[in-house]
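Supplementary Note 3. Input sequence used for the single-chain structure prediction.
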Amino acid sequence: MSLKIYLFLFLSLIVAGVFSFLPGKEEVPPQMLLIPAGPFIMGSNDLPGEIETGGELGNKKPFYLDEHPQRTLFIDDFYIDRFEVTNEDYQRFVQEKKRRPPPYWKGESYPEGQALLPVIEVNWYEARDYCQWLDKRLPTESEWEKAARGPNGNLYVWGNEFDGKKANVSAGAHGGIMMVGRFIEDRSVYDVYDLNGNIMEWTADWYQPYPGSDYDSDDFGQQFKVAKGDAYGESGHYALSIFSRLSYRQNVKAEMRLPFLGIRCAKDREKRRFLGRF
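The predicted structure, written as discrete structure tokens, is reproduced below.
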């Protein structure tokens, strides 16, 4: 074999090796968005004022204290649903897996005209199973908060000044639950909709104290799951912007079904694919 042929084969192997390390085109799952890896601010160091005591307002837990201490976290990249899971989405799960429909449905059918409203009255286990059915999972509390607050720790998806007109929140007096994506300003820096309002959303995590917290509660432990986000004005929340703060933590029994609590799924990012090997 001639020297030219040997040289050609040698160069071909080098080129093939180089191209084997070039990443393939990444396919983002439908209706999901990539939240990039990096640091973000989680929790708060806020303290309650004179009118913000749990006893006076009937709230079971003190405001703010379970959000302490505010800290900077670094988490890996992940995908999250752009919108809350709708009745139309959930119907496919109910029909295919023969699962129990939400109590407000009639059999396997959601109420007429509510296809694009977020599904509600599903407990944590049903929310988990729905996400797993799609090869997804519930977001962790930290993932949810990063997707909502962005890298700078916004109190609300649009910034740090409350405006009840920008989302379907308890203090906004917009009425009932609404179609997903209706509030254009309830959209995070990552383009995720309805994190600030419309309904609360289940997360994967138990209601636990944050590392370094000096606040103790009998509710901590594996008793309650954390729900995040504010809900529409008739949700039973007091009409206070406190509940719209993205650092607010709601503790809910995993088996409970509430008319203002639903689902948003997350998914681990797929590893980069390679075109070949040496």
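Strands lie at 32-35, 38-42, 71-75, 78-81, 200-206, 225-228, 250-252, 261-262, 266-268. The domain at 24-268 is CATH 3.90.1580.10 (paralog of FGE (formylglycine-generating enzyme)).
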